[in-house]
UniProtKB/TrEMBL annotation, chain B:
GO terms assigned for molecular function: transmembrane transporter activity
Keywords: Cell membrane, Membrane, Transmembrane, Transmembrane helix
Subcellular location: Cell membrane
Tree of life domain: Bacteria
Protein name as annotated: ABC transporter permease
TrEMBL record, chain C:
Location within or outside the cell: Cell membrane
GO cellular component, one term: plasma membrane
CDD domains recorded: ABC_Carb_Monos_I, ABC_Carb_Monos_II
Main location, first listed in the record: membrane
Record keywords: ATP-binding, Cell membrane, Membrane, Nucleotide-binding, Repeat, Translocase, Transport
Keyword Membrane in record: yes
This protein's name: ABC transporter ATP-binding protein
Gene source species: Ureibacillus yapensis
Membrane-protein topology: Peripheral membrane protein
TrEMBL record, chain D:
Protein name: ABC transporter permease
High-level lineage: Bacteria, Bacillati, Bacillota, Bacilli, Bacillales
GO molecular function terms attached to this record: transmembrane transporter activity
Species in which this protein is naturally found: Ureibacillus yapensis
An example Gene Ontology CC term for this record: plasma membrane
Compartment(s) where it occurs, according to its Swiss-Prot or TrEMBL record: Cell membrane
PANTHER family referenced in this protein's UniProt entry, alphabetically: GUANOSINE ABC TRANSPORTER PERMEASE PROTEIN NUPQ, SUGAR ABC TRANSPORTER INTEGRAL MEMBRANE PROTEIN-RELATED
Predominant location category: membrane
Length: 330, 349, 514, 319
């Protein structure tokens, strides 16, 4: 309630400060770094905090070697809770956690087990990807859909596994074209892969490839621009990528996006910690059930049946009737 | 003015000029340069921790700098230090985690593996240059990209599909609790000593050995070297291989010191390319490289503190470094100025 | 008789070093004016000042009576001054025409009109019969033709005052005679010429007057007709100079170098040495006379192991050395003064000391198990610098590039001779050097021979071959066409042999004539 | 995929991949032909990319679909400005050219990202709305087979790249400027004695590379990436450098080399869907482009000679 808030403002000594360090993607990566930051800003607003020491802040890392430095840096500026974003920070967190027992660290997208002062936050992106798969399979006219991964590994593997499972469930003989750019930055390669997939008849492509994914958007928009009734669609990742898909005011190539509500999670964990029950040592996973992941509003891009089918699948997953594989080939 | 005095003054003046222009840029962009440089200073010297981190940052630069410098001294442009360093990093990380051996064997073995891997990666361009006159610059550029992909693939294999290899065993680590305690948990590690040894080694090799004499001669004038009965091809390959070994050891610093493992690379590490700058800052002299690395590493590490302490983007530091390099490279004009100045002083007396 | 060029009190400094100190040179219209001086005396510098490459610190220049400031070569070109530089100023991978038109290209609609240009070049070349092929690439043509291209460059720009800086240094006798005729023709055309050369013979032959400079100082100007080689040499060096190096009769001993039916191909696979036979004995100097390009280079490279021998046999002191590695051959007692000192003889960016160790750096006492003792290196080097009077700025430490060719050459000779090899191969050892240096080097060669060593001298200069060698082997088209004794032959007889006319009788007749 | 389908894919995507490299590499050809080594191409591309994107985002509304083209001009100007730093250092101040190039790369990246942060206070811009888009060339695109390979889905910028390549060839080999340029790179002193202004030629050459490099970066940014961030240009400059050497310092050669890279890249992308090829481990497909290049060099390209004076500052009277 509001009263509580005002009360907080007055007593500044017990304000609870939060900060984050990004991985090399940077705070505006249109992905989990950015979402985390949004969650922290939310939290800051609600608790009337200022950006900077004693309030909320972030540090960007431009190289792997900077993670530890940045973590320590924030700890020295004694923030009460620090978010470390991305699996890349695993070792840095593990190391610093041992050296700084008082620090409270929450790591996103990675598990750092058995450390009382580290909370691990994971997202079952595979569940949301499953829904994306269902939607894609349902919507595909050509019976062929595609997946563009960034770099092979467990995280992206989750997206792939869920997507494939969902698609197969919705349409057993759907054809799925899978290729990794082995880069999160090479837009040109992303575009070449997309071109190849569309050329070979795929009409819906889901990417989990960061900026390499830009190439996919470019390719799709090109095709749409050339021929307004071309049947090419993109499924965005992490956040609602609707804006990236804009061809002109009336047309957009984004079917939907797989959401990872890191912002929600970050805010929640921050609040818990503020209340004094920081989930240290625990592994918290967010899935469809707690709306930590989900699909973005298709904005009418998909049919009623599809919406229904997706909703149905969502319920089944929440009820545990469907268990979504976590890695390809499971 | 004495030659020595000039040789010391030129870099000093360059650094000052670089910082001044950096200050102007900050001021123009609405920042307070004082705050900026205080933050930079603190980022380098504030306390034992930052100093430890600074030294840690310097260590791999010494190696990449030596690698580039050594190649230059022997008439080759090794733009592939990046890739050689990555291969060295991978090799050291693997040896460090795959075996269990007493430290006296394990650590040297891991270092050796890194050097060998880097050397091997550099052998390819060396061989192609010597036997087929293929331009080493393209080959090394291509091998940089290849190294990243190969390393990532092998990391996958080693870690069973994971993102990173396991930490190296204590027996292969360059870390030491003593150092970390002394520097309040910085990642300072013994690698710096290895690096200093490498500096001396390169100096000795080039300035005191028959091999060094041959390598330099071939670098300057292949024809005359051949007339003097040297084996030009062998020397070209050897030069590249030694350069690559330095680079590989640079990787070992990361594998056995800073990170104690290797994670999949999303991009080049940059250490190799920065090595070019470091080498040229140091005029391709081993001890010059040392100084270059200190300057480079200190500024880079100190720069990390600028956003958090002064809210100034770290890029400003890169800008300053770039400017310093320009000024040092253009030292000729500064020299002329100094000599004029010196003359005037003489005449006045 | 008016002056077309007057350089009055010219002073040029490089840093603290005074290269030209108050030098005066006056060129009359239609004369060939020789400029004489030792290596490093300041001739090129003076001419570079006249051509606008260097700016003088003091002095005035008048062209056709009008005072001028020659700020850069463009100005010189406009004033009708053209220069043929000591080190050729030609772009190797350009064609003759491209080199000539560079900087003032005729164009048709923005495109270079190469055809017209080539025609014009052709015409000029015929007019002064320089016979150059306008479309030939520089890297494919002989030094002589390159020389003539340099001349064409100046003529193409309509220069009527021509500067020749050591044009003959690297020409064969034939080419030199041609050049002399060309100069005479140019004079008839009403042009005026400044000629720098170290060869007094040439000065006597073509020049009208001579200006002598010594160590940057103007010594004076004399009318050629009223002076003599000896006088000129004295003026220039400042002491007596002996031209014909006197020497005791040789006493050849056992065979050192034995070459049997040697065949060697060049890079293109064409045979350049064709079953050639040659023997050089201890205590004698064998001179190989011949026109450039008759297999001399290939022969040397074969002996020194730098080029594969196709067939035939080379033995040194009875041991076969055919196709051994260069180092093996050097170690078995061969010393080599290479033809191209900059390319093959020296690492120009090394300190002088390093260069003197170029053949011995890996051996005791300089090297012990892979470690070089530079103290020792410099000690040895100082010694040689001393003995062979190699002049340089900072002794063993001075960068070799900054030495004059003359001094560079002395360093090489010191290096090779001091190794005291059984066979010393000297290829064009005096190219581009002044009489003083030449005299010095010839002495050293003869000393070697008197110490019972074998010397193989390759030279394009007849008089050098004539007065240094004990026996002259004339090479033509890859084989030794004839072997003669210097005192039993004449220059024009050698000339004929070098042109490929093997006339045994002639040799005898020649002998009787004397 | 059928063989034809493979070609239909490979050829166009090789071309679109190559276009930025061609432009930049030819810029490199000009500098090195004049005797200046320019490894600062990467930095120049970065600045070109950044400036064009910032301009594009700012003026898209006013300029509509002319924006990307004007963006090219803007990138060109900034490219030239950056290259001037190299020119001053390497030509006037006799700085080591390689060092200056390295510094240029650092400066380019830092300045670009710094500016972006200043303007948008984040390290990465939003997506631009006015991109270069593809079109089919009328008539030609109807030619059976060939039409689909070469004249469908063409980027105007690719045509620009080819045009530049041929113009560069003409300029370098047919005009007085070209002759002087090459002479300055081979034997500056000779050029000097013939009244060619060495410094001026080198300045112009470096600025040309600035212009073309800037355009190259802008093409990549506005046709492919669609936004700018620190990682938008990562290595293309060095690929361009490689293309220049691969192409033996010849404009058309550089063009060929860049196309070769594009072809190899496309091959590795398509490989996964060609029978048999798809069975080889992906790592081999990933390194294919680079390995192919090395093999090509070792195999049939062999020795290439850089311009003789390349990398050497020209000082009057020095030998
Ligand atoms: N570019 C230069 N920088 C410094 N000193 C120079 C330079 N050029 C010439 N000198 C000095 O000027 C003196 C004269 O040099 P110059 O080339 O004129 O000699 P030269 O008479 O042409 O000799 P040679 O007969 O060998 O051609 C040299 O001894 C040298 O010390
Ligand atoms: N760039 C330079 N720096 C320093 N000294 C120089 C330079 N150029 C020439 N010199 C000086 O000029 C003097 C003579 O030069 P010059 O070229 O005339 O000698 P040279 O005997 O003619 O050489 P070459 O035989 O190769 O023509 C040398 O003693 C050298 O010290
Ligand atoms: Mg001279
Ligand atoms: Mg000379």
């Amino acid at each position: 309630g509001g009263g509580e808030e005002t009360e907080k403002k007055e007593s500044s000594e017990d304000t609870f400060s939060v900060a984050m360090i990004t991985d090399t993607g940077g705070v505006d990566d249109k992905s989990f770094n950015q979402s985390t930051w949004e969650g922290i800003q939310e939290f800051g607003k609600e608790n009337g905090l200022e950006k900077g020491d004693g309030g909320f802040d972030y540090l960007q890392s431009s190289a792997e070697s900077e993670y530890v430095t940045n973590l320590n840096n924030l700890i020295r500026r004694d923030f009460d809770l620090i978010f470390a974003v991305g699996f890349a920070l695993h070792n840095a967190v593990a190391e610093v956690a041992d050296q700084q027992p008082e620090a409270q660290i929450a790591i996103i997208d990675e598990v750092v087990p058995d450390k009382e002062n580290v909370a691990s936050i994971m997202f079952r992106a595979n569940e949301a990807s499953y829904l994306a798969g269902v939607a894609a399979a349902q919507e595909s006219k050509s019976g062929k859909i595609g997946f563009i991964g960034g770099m092979t590994g467990e995280i992206i593997g989750g997206f792939e596994a869920g997507y494939v499972a969902g698609a197969k469930a919705a349409n057993p003989d759907i054809e799925i074209d899978i290729e990794y750019a082995e880069s999160f930055t090479d837009a040109a390669k992303g575009q070449q892969i997309a071109k190849r997939m569309y050329d070979s008849g795929a009409d819906i492509i889901f990417h989990a490839a960061g900026n390499a994914g830009n190439g996919l958007f470019t390719e799709a928009k090109e095709r749409k621009q050339k021929d307004p009734d071309a049947n090419v669609w993109v499924i965005g990742v992490d956040r609602d990528q609707y804006d990236e898909g804009k061809v002109d005011d009336s047309t957009n190539v984004v079917l939907t996006s797989v959401l990872k509500r890191v912002d929600v999670a970050a805010k929640e964990v921050a609040n818990q910690a503020k209340e004094g029950n920081f989930p240290g040592g625990e592994l918290i996973t967010y899935g469809l059930a707690d709306e930590g992941v989900g699909l973005a509003d298709p904005r009418g891009a998909v049919s009623e049946e599809t919406v229904a089918a997706v909703e149905d699948a969502r319920q089944k997953i929440i009820d545990g009737e469907i268990t979504v594989p976590e890695q390809p080939g499971e | 003015m004495s030659k020595r005095a000039v040789n010391i003054l030129v870099p000093l003046i360059s650094i000052i000029l670089g910082l001044v222009i950096g200050a102007i840029v900050m001021a123009v962009s609405g920042f307070n340069p004082i705050d900026g440089y205080v933050a930079l200073w603190n980022g380098i010297f504030m306390d034992s921790y930052t100093m430890g981190e600074t030294i840690r940052q310097i260590t791999p630069y010494i190696f990449s700098g030596l690698a580039v410098a050594f190649a230059f001294r022997t008439g080759l442009f090794n733009i592939g230090v990046e890739g050689q360093l990555i291969m060295g990093w991978l090799a050291a990380a693997w040896v460090g985690q795959a075996f269990e051996l007493p430290k006296i064997i394990h650590l040297p073995l891991a270092l050796l593996a890194a050097a060998a891997a880097g050397a091997l990666w550099a052998f390819i361009p060396g061989f192609l240059k010597a036997k087929l006159q293929v331009h080493e610059v393209i080959v090394t550029i291509m091998l940089n990209y290849t190294a990243i992909h190969v390393a990532n693939a092998l990391i996958g294999v080693i870690s069973g599909g994971g993102e990173r290899t396991d930490k190296v065993h204590e027996s292969a680590s360059l870390r030491a609790h003593y150092l970390e305690a002394m520097t309040d948990y910085s990642r300072l590690h013994w690698g710096i000593l290895v690096a200093l040894l490498a500096v001396v080694f390169m100096w000795f090799l080039l300035e005191r050995t028959t091999l060094g004499y041959e390598l330099k001669a071939v670098g300057f004038n292949k024809n005359a070297s051949e007339y003097a009965g040297m084996n030009v091809k062998k020397n070209i390959i050897l030069a590249m291989v030694i350069s690559g070994a330095f680079a590989g050891l640079g990787g070992a610093m990361e594998a056995l010191g800073t990170f104690e493992n290797i994670s999949k690379l999303h991009a080049a590490t940059g250490i190799g390319f920065d090595g070019i700058a470091v080498a040229l800052l140091g005029a391709n002299q081993p001890f010059g490289v040392l100084l270059g690395a200190i300057l480079f590493g200190a500024l880079k590490n100190g720069g990390l503190n600028m956003p958090s302490e002064a809210g100034i983007p770290t890029e400003i530091v890169s800008i300053v470094i770039a400017l310093i390099i320009f000024f040092i490279a253009s030292g000729y004009i500064i020299r002329v100025a100094l000599e004029r100045f010196g003359k005037k002083r003489k005449e006045e007396k | 008789m008016e002056y077309v060029i007057e350089m009055l009190g010219i002073r040029k400094q490089f840093g603290d070093f005074v290269a030209n100190d108050n030098i005066t040179l006056q060129l009359k219209k239609g004369e060939i004016h020789a400029l004489l001086g030792e290596n490093g005396a300041g001739k090129s510098t003076l001419m570079n000042v006249l051509f606008g490459l260097y700016q003088p610190e003091a002095g005035t220049i008048r062209v056709r009576g009008k005072e001028v400031k020659i700020t850069d070569p463009n100005v010189a070109n406009k004033l009708g001054i053209g220069m043929v530089h000591q080190h050729f100023m030609l772009v190797e991978n350009f064609t003759v025409t491209e080199n000539i038109i560079l900087g003032s290209e005729p164009t048709k609609m923005g495109t270079i009109n190469i055809k017209d240009a080539a025609k014009k070049v052709q015409a000029l070349s015929e007019k002064y019969n320089l016979n150059v092929d306008p479309y030939a690439k520089i890297e494919d043509i002989s030094v002589g033709m390159q020389q003539r291209v340099e001349i064409l460059k100046t003529l193409y720009r309509g220069a009527d005052i021509l500067i020749f800086d050591e044009p003959t240094a690297s020409l064969t006798p034939q080419e030199i005679t041609e050049l002399m005729q060309i100069m005479k023709r140019l004079i008839e055309e009403g042009k005026s010429i400044i000629l720098i050369t170290h060869k007094l013979k040439e000065i006597m032959e073509v020049s009208d007057r001579v200006t002598v400079i010594r160590k940057g100082q103007g010594i004076g100007t004399v009318v050629t007709a009223e002076s003599s080689p000896t006088q000129l040499a004295e003026l220039m060096v400042g002491r007596q100079v002996v031209f014909k190096t006197e020497k005791i009769a040789p006493n050849p001993k056992e065979i050192v170098l034995q070459i049997d039916s040697l065949t060697v191909a060049d890079n293109r696979g064409v045979d350049k040495v064709k079953n050639l036979n040659l023997t050089v004995r201890a205590g004698e100097i064998v001179g190989i006379a011949g026109i450039d390009g008759n297999g001399q280079s290939e022969l040397i490279e074969a002996i020194t192991g730098l080029r594969k021998v196709k067939n035939g046999k080379i033995t040194l002191n009875g041991k076969e050395i055919t196709n051994l590695k260069p180092r093996k051959i050097t170690e078995s007692g061969v010393g080599h003064i290479p033809q191209d000192r900059h390319k093959h003889g020296l690492v120009l960016d090394f300190p002088l000391g390093h260069n003197i160790a170029l053949q011995t750096y890996y051996k005791q006492p300089i090297s012990k198990n892979g470690v070089i003792n530079y103290k020792k290196v410099n000690e040895i080097a100082r010694n040689i610098i001393e003995q062979y009077d190699v002049r340089s700025g900072e002794g063993v430490m001075s960068i070799t590039r900054s030495l004059s060719g003359g001094n560079q050459q002395k360093a090489i000779i010191g290096r090779e001779v001091e190794r005291n090899p059984d066979l010393l191969i000297a290829a064009l050892p005096t190219r581009g050097l002044d009489v003083g240096a030449i005299e010095f080097i010839h002495r050293r060669l003869i000393e070697q021979r008197d110490n019972g060593k074998a010397v193989l001298l390759i030279s394009f200069e007849l008089d050098e071959v004539m007065n240094v060698s004990d026996e002259i082997a004339v090479i033509y088209d890859g084989y030794i066409i004839d072997t003669v004794k210097p005192q039993e032959t004449t220059e024009n007889e050698l000339g004929l042999l070098m042109a490929g006319q093997s006339l045994q009788e002639n040799t005898k007749e020649g002998g009787q004539h004397e | 995929m059928s063989f034809l389908e493979v070609l239909y894919f490979i050829i166009p995507s090789a071309i679109f991949y190559a276009a930025p490299l061609i432009l930049t590499a030819i810029g490199g050809v000009f500098t090195e032909r004049s005797g200046v080594v320019n490894i600062g191409l990467e930095g120049i591309m970065i600045v070109g990319a950044a400036s064009s994107i910032i301009f594009n985002l700012t003026f898209a509304d006013q300029l509509g679909n002319a924006t990307p083209w004007v963006g090219l001009l803007v990138a060109m100007i900034f490219g030239i400005l950056l290259s001037l730093i190299l020119a001053v250092a390497a030509v006037s101040l006799r700085a080591d050219q390689t060092v200056s190039g390295v510094a240029l790369n650092m400066l380019g990246l830092a300045a670009a990202v710094f500016t972006v942060k200043m303007i948008y206070d984040k390290g990465q811009t939003d997506a631009i709305s006015e991109r270069f888009s593809r079109f089919d060339i009328p008539l030609l695109s109807d030619i059976p087979i060939l039409g689909k390979m070469f004249f469908v889905d063409v980027y105007a910028t690719s045509i620009l790249a080819f045009a530049v390549a041929f113009i560069a060839w003409y300029v370098i080999y047919k005009t007085p400027f070209g002759l002087r340029l090459r002479s300055v790179g081979e034997h500056p002193m000779a050029a000097d004695t013939m009244g060619v202004n060495v410094s001026k030629m080198r300045y112009v050459a470096v600025m040309i590379s600035g212009a073309l490099g800037g355009i190259g970066g802008a093409v990549y940014a506005q046709a492919i990436a669609g936004n700018f961030g620190a990682a938008t240009i990562s290595g293309q400059g060095f690929m361009a450098l490689a293309a220049m050497i691969f192409g033996k310092w010849h404009p058309l050669g550089a063009m060929g080399a860049a196309l070769f890279f594009g072809f190899a890249q496309a091959l590795s992308v398509v490989g996964g869907s060609i029978p048999y090829v798809q069975d080889v481990p992906t790592i081999f497909l990933l390194i294919l482009p680079y390995v192919l290049t090395i093999l090509a060099l070792a195999g049939f390209i062999g020795k290439a000679n850089a311009p003789k004076a390349s990398g050497v500052p020209y000082i009057k009277g020095k030998r």
